[in-house]
Amino acid sequence: MVSRLSIYSALFFACTVLHANEHVQHEQVVVIGSRSSANDIDVDVIPSHVTVVQTKDLSSSYSSVADVLKAQAGVQIRQQGGMGSYSSLSIRGSTGAQVNVYLDGVLLNSAQGGAVDLSELLLDSVERIEIYRGYVPLQLGSAGIGGAVNVVTKQSKQTGGHISLTYGSFNSSKFAASSSIVAEDMRLRGSVERVSSDNDFDLVNDNQTPSNPLDDRDETRQNAQYDQLSAALSGDYAIRPDMTLSGLAQYYDRAKGIPGVVNDPTNKAQFDTEFFMFSTGLDHQLTKAWDLSYQLALSQRDTLYDDTQNKVGLNANLEAATTQSIDAKVHARQRLKQSILHYEVAANQETYDNHDKLREIRFEAQRQQYSLGLQGEWFSRDDAFSVMGQTRFRAVSDETDLLTQDDRSEQSFDAQLGLNYQLNRSLKLRTSLSRDIRLPSLYELYGDDGSAIGNADLEDEVALNAEAGFQFSSTASLASLTAFYRDLTDAIVTIYDARGIGRAENISSALLYGLEFDGEVSLYDAWKLGAKGAWVNSEDRSQVVGFRGNPLPGQYEYTSGLVNQFLWHSYLAEIEFVYRNEGFYDRSATTELPESKQVHAALKYSFSDHQVELVGRNLTDERIEDFNRYPAPGRHFYLSYKYVF
């Protein structure tokens, strides 16, 4: 760890030294390339509810992408505890595996596990987060049943940098630094970030007897400590006016304790992760009508799960796993008189290797995917009306070293169609319809030789998604209201036997529909009011009588938020109220999710190139469990300082 920190500190120092030797004015902004890349997405023409969150507007107390997404309409984040704990994503009632998460257009969902832990994605190198709840553009490869999230990293706009420090409750700390260089035909940015917390917050231990309060006791959370070091280096170079080369190298190393249900102080279970990704792209403006974009990405993820004491799982475990992935794609854009066509060819290979060191059992699997995509955008002469549609063909083959399972291959299609109509300068109507699929993960197909048995006969999950809504915008306000519908068939559910061994089955279907609202208004120059909310009604249509008709587990039916911002001279004050209610932890609908009413507040003071911010989270001191018996922290505070140069 020390040697790695030295390397990244040296990278940051090198960027700073180069910055000191650049004879470029601080305020200079350089644009690389004469027009947008074929891979760029124009979110204004997407016929669906899309939100773009700029990280420069966020509180410094936010540490990961999960912290940002939990405040968005129609989005729910479930966390297993405090800072750095496992964080799963749901959009419009989906599971985490049904939402595709991208980093600069590179898919992060692994073929092995499916869902992405959003707490691993720290924010210092992130410029914006794009949330696609319905229609997913072709540039992102494959559409998920539950939409997609694209995390876009920062690009240097001018020479400079920043240093920030944060400290808060539970010995939580955050250090971040970045430096950027902008020359005539080149941009380079380096960043380092470290986040850690003891997560030793207070809790009430019910001694696993929730109906008997007499044996409850006050304790502090045990073995929930967390430490993550991240670094990123990105840049682009204009080879010539019509050709630009770009690259991104991202690395993080994290270690976190795994707390148990009984909050045992002798528990030493730990989960360590090391991740590296390198991606490069070449954008070529071939003619006035044609743009080409080539992208190659390589990644490796190493994990070590150590529960040799058998304090957390069903059995003692010491497992090391490595996931390697190669992604390549070519994307072409053709501009016609009143339309734009997109063509894409993509290939991916992922290899998974798991080593059970206690039992000396190895498991290897590989998935290869090839896809072809076509997207068309047509605009009326006055640009008031537009149609967007696409189709994708995908061929997949899976291989495993298990003698009890055969190799597997399949082909599939998905399609999307959407309409936009600009009724007047302020009001836009939009609607979309899509057929989306999710492939079974390697874990669901082949198990893990421990707590799960594979099922190679699984069918793809298939969903019919539809939505309709409007967006209103003016100089002082912005609002949107969207109705959505999802019919899910062949849903994959893991069934556990009396031994606690699971097997995935296509035994369920589900119906979801609801409304989501998102808006803000500026009242005078100093006051901004924002409101978000969603109603998600879900029905489990399982063949199992005990589950049929119940709402889907782990989801709140009603969520809402209200934000007030006040600006006075160099001070910015914000207060946020968040409400969640109605839902169940389990499919049998016997254990209710607790009603949640939380208040957050922040006060920021800016002067010259400095910022100081005080943040209070969960001021109502509510003890909420997103996952049953995994409590989140109560009231906590952060103080941060930031210097921009």
Counted by DSSP, the helix tally is 3
CATH topology: Maltoporin, Chain A
User: What is the top-level CATH class?
Assistant: Mainly Beta
Q: Can you tell me the overall shape?
A: globular
Roughly what is the average pLDDT, rounded to an integer? Answer: 90
The share of residues in helices is under 10%
Assigned CATH architecture: Beta Barrel
Ends distance: 28 Å
Could you say how many structural domains there are in total?
1
Care to describe what's here?
There is one protein chain. The protein is mainly beta and 645 residues long. The chain has a single domain (2-644), classed as Beta Barrel (Maltoporin, Chain A), CATH 2.40.170.20. Helix content is 5%, strand content 56%. The protein contains 3 helices and 32 strands. It has a 22-stranded antiparallel beta barrel. A 5-stranded mixed sheet has the order 1-6-7-4-5, with no helix packed on it. A two-stranded antiparallel ribbon has the order 2-3. The longest helix has 20 residues, at 2-21. The protein is globular, with a radius of gyration of 25 Å. The chain starts with a helix and ends with a strand. Residues 1-31 have low confidence and may be disordered.
Task: Offer a concise description of the structure.
The chain has helices spanning 2-21, 65-69, 442-446; strands spanning 50-54, 75-79, 87-91, 100-103, 106-107, 126-132, 148-153, 160-168, 172-182, 186-197, 202-205, 217-220, 226-240, 243-257, 270-285, 290-307, 317-335, 339-356, 361-379, 385-400, 408-422, 427-438, 452-453, 461-473, 477-496, 502-523, 527-540, 558-568, 571-581, 596-607, 610-617, 636-644. By secondary structure, the protein is mainly beta.
